[in-house]
Specification:
2 copies of one chain form a homodimer. With 341 residues, chain A is of the alpha/beta class. Chain A is 43% helix and 16% strand. Chain A folds into 3 domains: 44 residues, 434 Repressor (Amino-terminal Domain); 134 residues, Rossmann fold; 131 residues, Rossmann fold (3-Layer(aba) Sandwich), CATH 3.40.50.2300. In chain A, helix 5 packs parallel to helix 13 and helix 8 runs parallel beside helix 9. The longest helix of chain A is centred in the middle third of the chain and has 16 residues. The first copy, chain A, is elongated. The first copy, chain A, binds a DNA duplex (16 and 16 nucleotides) through helix 2 and helix 4.
Chain lengths: 341, 341
DNA sequence: TTGAAAGCGCTAACAC
DNA sequence: GTGTTAGCGCTTTCAA
């Protein structure tokens, strides 16, 4: 059903039909009624592509989701919550958040993918996740002058809108807590080094140690994928040291689940012999044994704010709040505790 | 950079440029070289929307992902693996899998969303996930005569392409195993009743009981969201019965994690006093305490096959294998075992 | 081998 | 208040 057929059916010109349907005032009320009625009956929907070509806007916002090396899994399930919240907000203005995947080890590199999207004008705006400190995607988007918001900061942060959780504060809190528990050797099982969030978390960790006049032990910071498997492997490596750490701070709850398994395997009781802390406050952590001490980072709130920022940019507004650092909260549970004497 | 500007820059007509770039043979080789060279230099990309309007194809495949009641989370993280695999396959033919979300409790119902997509011709093909036995989306897609593949079966299964895991066999295996362990009261903590997979799993469960000449106890099948929280709540309810079950089969690993927490809370040792089995073979289950006995269901293989089926349908081929029931495998670990005497 | 021109379905300026 | 018409950027027929 095209506007052409609808117009013919009604004995009107297509322009009149178009105007009736798009809320123009210079259409007789009776005509509008008739058109709307018939459009509903015939289940008419304007052809999205044709409308886009004419208007120059696709009414969709793109986000590229990273897939890990085996091409089988979004790096972190929390993206689900983030995207759901963004979508809910932008929907009100007729926009749609559409997600595509990028296989980290696929043929095309991520930057080329962005370039294609930008030049083909696929999206009216972009959401960039999993930022790097020096992020080429940001440079690309800035150059193309297309609206975008990043989830996570970059070194160019003052020149683009971003929303982020306070990663530094999160690991400052977690580290301080272990120090207060009497731990002197605290290890950080961090995420991949290239990402801003990993860098910030390490900053928080180091700052807490410094404040307590502790020196980070050699080899007490490891980097790797935020998965159970990696958390397990890292924890094993840590515990095999001559002087193993007594507290393990993990970049995600998933890593902490893996780390706890390694501790059990080494005959340690988590929460008594060794402290383990996660990040993300997932349900899994809440129901693990022992329940996982973790960091709550309100992903949905971040998503909603990102949605609002995107809408503001799409509306050409530059006066909206450009940056938001979401505070975090430590959720104390049973996986950490005082250093055993 | 439009084809117009590129043509002007080259001193050629846009039609010649178009043909040179699209592999037509009636273009002088020298001209083609020159055009391709310059296009690369100027980083020309055809406008995706314009091309779509002309060709009638968007080169994208849509999938609508369900978001749960709080609008914050894809119902199941395994979708990530599925979509990654599908995307990897269809990319080879220039297609792109794009995911949009649907909030189960949002303003617009899912069917209306599909109707909009179909009439606006957003996608060349659709992937339908989380099927119901009588699925209105399937009827809609069939009526619209647009290529689609479902992940999961429907009652109309013989008339549309689908890929599914053998849910029935999975729970037949899991139930049989408990019966062999000596359990006589096996409970099923199932997913939401409306979905085909829940129905099939219950079929498998009942079939195993019947074969062993056991009657399912009253109230030994519950339905709910596939989350840790729900698994926990259901298990609590089960264990509070006068004659509680000694084995709990869960629709997902996440539910099983929750169920195990409830067992611990009731003072039961999982794997000794009570059996718990999950489904999905997630990393979390592998590293839980005790490690979770579960069902492996090769999501990525399914995704690859779905991709191939979609491509076949998009190419107008109807001779391709239309249905695929992927076999499952039970992964024995320590969360279940012989009935304590 | 190349260029002119039609047209995909729609919106919006302009004419009546 | 309504119709005619010119594009949006591209592909593809047709004529040269």
């Amino acid at each position: 059903m095209s506007i052409h057929r609808l117009a013919r059916d009604l004995g009107l010109s297509i322009s009149t039909v178009s105007r009736a349907l798009n809320g123009y005032t210079d259409v007789a009320e009776a005509t509008r009624q008739r058109v709307e009625q018939r459009a509903r009956e015939l289940d008419y929907q304007p052809h999205a592509v044709a409308r886009s070509l004419k208007s120059g806007r696709s009414m969709s916002i793109g986000v590229v989701l990273p897939i890990d090396e085996v091409g089988e899994r979004f790096i972190d399930p929390m993206y689900s919550r983030l995207l759901g919240a963004v979508d809910a907000v932008v929907q009100d203005k007729g926009y749609r958040l559409v997600a595509t995947t990028h296989n980290v080890h696929g043929a095309e590199d991520e930057l080329a993918l962005y370039r294609r999207f930008l030049q083909a004008r696929w999206f009216d705006a972009h959401l960039v996740v999993r930022t790097r400190r020096d992020d080429a995607r940001v440079a690309l988007l800035q150059e193309a002058d297309v609206p975008f918001v990043t989830y996570g900061r970059t070194v160019a942060g003052e020149r683009h809108p971003w929303v982020d959780t306070d990663n530094e504060q999160a690991f400052l809190l977690a580290t301080q807590r272990q120090i207060e528990f009497g731990h002197r050797h605290v290890a950080l099982l961090n995420g991949p080094e290239v990402y801003t969030f990993s860098w910030l978390r390490e900053q928080g960790y180091r700052r807490a140690l410094e404040t307590a006049r502790l020196l980070p032990h050699a080899g007490s910071v490891l980097h790797g994928d935020p998965t159970e498997k990696t958390g397990y492997a890292m924890a094993r490596q840590m515990l095999a040291q001559a002087h193993p750490p007594t507290a393990l701070l993990c970049a995600t709850d998933a890593m902490a689940i893996g780390a706890m398994a390694a501790c059990r395997e080494a005959g340690l009781v988590v929460g008594r012999d060794v402290s383990v802390v996660g990040y993300g406050n997932t349900e899994t952590g809440a129901f693990s044994d022992p329940p996982l001490t973790t960091i709550e980072h309100r992903v949905s709130d971040n998503g909603r704010l990102i949605g609002q920022l995107l809408l503001a940019r799409l509306a050409g507004r530059t006066d909206a709040v450009w940056h938001h650092l979401e505070p975090v909260e430590l959720v104390p549970r049973a996986s950490d505790g005082p250093l055993a004497p």
